[in-house]
Design goal:
The chain is of the alpha+beta class and 637 residues long. The protein is built from ten helices and 38 strands. It is globular, with a radius of gyration of 25 Å.
């Protein structure tokens, strides 16, 4: 045992391939005791106040800082607006009154989010949707109606979300605007908050958009996309006094084209697209309705700015630091910005920028907790799968020896999501313990066009899993990974992939960690009730438990658990509404029956992922010890 920089650590065995650098304590990486932490910074519409979240007694709460006479914000003079002692409040948003703040919160991971309103003068907090077992979503504010909020809620039919408007200045003002026709997934309003239509998920797994000109008109189908285009197409916003709309459309392309379409004439104008990567981060001016900028996320994120004045100001701030610059918040007039610089090997830095004076001032770091420690960069990589697809990902290596390392394949959830470049606490933790970390955007991941995404349809445990296996082989062939010291680790879909990895390639991994992973694909319909609207899509993307029973059974780890011989650690939240507790307990029962080496950690007060300080520390302590035992990395005692 050694003592280094106040942190005790041990080597699990003599397999030490890294320099002996100070361990980053787990409490720093995963705990909520950091008094310097600040996140989710938001300017008020008038630019006079600043919201942010920060931990108090290990629970994140909302604070407000008021702008001083010299134009700066002094965080030492902040006022705490919420006093939550059990559940985090990770972020909040302003109403256009400048005196009211909204946030959403569920109960211990049940995903039934209520909307709460804070009066910043009286400090009183109201639950605006105090309905038991009811969830809200899609909260919007509007400067034309400063005291009103628009949102959707499943109050009348737990399976469906209807649109509502509520005026916080008027008691009993809750008004339902329309009844969900049975499959609406998103409600469309114009700038005057006239309900103009909705988009739905149809029976084939595709998406239809219904619009209407006037409130008393019937909505008619204006746009329709098949399953293949649903993740790369969709309605964005109205423009030209509601005579035209912006959409993303990939019908005639592999990626979504940003188009402006006149609703009467059908005339199309293509504003932007990329042949290989998807568009995101589209900013539309709230008054002129002109597209100001958009992002094309490749290995790194860089905006394309169309508005000349916006571009000038962005270029001024882009020179301040060499990180990725994001305008994270603006006031109502778009003259005051909060700018965030992000990195892969240090935490965010925030600045305040005044577009009128062209001056900026440093606001804060998102935290100083990692400043004393050595962090590592994240390197974009790519390889070719066994059937010829180019697979992109990221590789992070520990300080010291870069060859023949113990390696962890860290699989993202979704699976219709992606890993991106930037600081990842879990990656830094694992590299700090001496492991190489490989993240892979396997087929089915978003961002690389519809052909790549749809190549993952009905490929759970098959080609999607092959991409992960091929990633490990790539790392072995390039002498990055020690073939006898490879682990697989992931949550949600990543948890399924972990179980599939040890089931269908039982000799590949030295150990595995599954966080809330599905073990039985026949249970994809067993999820939160209001998630049933997505079942046609899930059946097309994953498989139909009736029509595709044989295929789903063949690629469900539960039914092949006798193949597992890899030590396995499983974490689960009892309140998980997406992957039920039974998914983990069924596979645990099989592991026990087959005398496999396993650990099972159940948290009664968590849902789909672990949010509470004590639970996180307990889980990551167990995972770190588990990896040290089987891979030989470092472990903080």
């Amino acid at each position: 045992m050694f003592l280094l920089s106040g942190v005790n650590y041990i080597m699990a065995d003599a397999y030490n391939t890294t320099q002996e650098i100070p361990l980053i304590p787990r409490s720093v990486l995963f705990g909520f005791e950091d008094s310097s932490a600040k996140g989710a910074l938001r300017l008020s519409p008038n630019g006079q106040h600043l919201l942010y979240s920060a931990p108090v007694n290990k629970v994140y709460n909302i604070f407000m800082c008021t702008r001083q006479e010299d134009g700066t914000f002094n965080f030492d003079k902040s006022v705490q607006l919420t006093h939550e002692t059990e559940q985090h409040i990770g972020s909040a948003k302003w109403m256009h009154t400048n005196n009211h703040v909204l946030y959403q919160q569920d109960a211990h991971g049940d995903e039934n989010n209520h909307i709460f309103c804070i009066d910043i003068e009286s400090k009183k907090i109201r639950d605006l949707t105090p309905f038991k077992g009811v969830a809200t979503s899609g909260t919007r504010t509007n400067k034309r109606f400063p005291t009103k909020i628009f949102f959707t809620m499943n109050k009348e039919n737990i399976k469906l979300f209807d649109p509502y408007i509520l005026d916080i200045s008027s008691p009993n003002s809750l008004e339902k605007l329309q009844t969900n026709p049975g499959n609406a997934s998103n409600w469309i309003t114009d700038d005057e908050w006239n309900l103009k239509g909705y988009s739905n998920l149809n029976a084939t797994g595709g998406q239809d958009v219904y619009l209407r000109k006037r409130q008393d008109d019937e909505s008619t189908k204006k746009f329709s996309w098949d399953l293949e285009d649903i993740d790369t197409s969709g309605f964005i916003d109205f423009c030209d006094n509601n005579e035209s709309v912006y959409i993303l459309d990939s019908k005639d392309n592999n990626t979504g084209k940003l188009k402006k379409i006149n609703l009467d004439t059908g005339h199309e104008e293509v504003i932007a697209y990329d042949e290989n990567y998807e568009l995101g981060g589209i900013i539309i001016h709230p008054d002129t309705k002109q597209v100001m900028s958009y992002n094309i996320v490749k290995d790194r994120n860089k905006p394309t700015i169309l508005d000349p004045e916006l571009k000038k100001d962005y270029e001024i701030m882009d020179k301040v630091e060499d990180g990725e610059l994001v305008i994270s918040s603006m006031d109502r007039d778009m003259t005051m910005w909060i700018c965030c610089f992000s990195y892969d090997n240090k935490l965010h830095n925030y600045y305040l920028y005044d577009r009128t004076t062209k001056k900026h001032s440093f606001l804060c770091k998102s935290s100083t907790k990692l400043d004393p420690y050595t962090l590592v960069p994240m390197k974009p990589i790519s390889y070719t799968s066994r059937d010829g697809l180019t697979i992109h990902g990221y590789l992070s290596l520990p300080v010291g020896n870069k060859k023949n390392l113990p390696m962890i394949l860290y699989v993202h959830g979704g699976p219709w999501a992606r890993d991106s470049w930037g600081l990842d606490g879990q990656v830094q933790w694992l590299c700090n313990r001496g492991y190489a970390v490989l993240q892979v955007n396997f087929r089915g991941s978003q961002g690389y066009g519809k052909a790549f995404l749809n190549a993952g349809n009905k490929q759970y445990g098959q080609k999607m899993q092959n991409d992960l296996t091929d990633a490990v082989q790539w790392a072995i062939d390039n002498q990055i990974a020690n073939p006898k010291k490879v682990a697989i680790y992931g949550g949600s879909y990543g948890g399924y992939a972990t179980l599939a990895g040890v089931t269908f390639t039982p000799d590949l991994y030295a150990c595995a960690v599954d966080l809330c992973g599905r073990s039985n694909l026949l249970t994809i319909t067993n999820r939160q009730v209001y998630g049933e609207i997505y079942l046609p899509l899930l059946k097309k993307r994953i498989g139909d438990p009736e029509a595709d029973e044989e295929m789903l059974r063949a690629h469900s780890p539960l039914f092949h658990a006798h193949n597992i011989k890899t030590p396995l650690l499983i974490g689960q939240g009892a309140n998980d509404q997406r992957v039920r507790q039974a998914e983990s307990e069924s596979i645990v029962a099989e592991l026990k029956r087959n005398n496999c080496e396993y650990e099972y950690i159940l948290f009664e007060d968590e849902g789909h992922g672990f949010r509470k300080h004590a639970n996180r520390i307990k889980f990551y302590t167990a995972v770190e010890k588990f990896f040290a035992k089987h891979l030989g990395g470092q472990y903080e005692v």
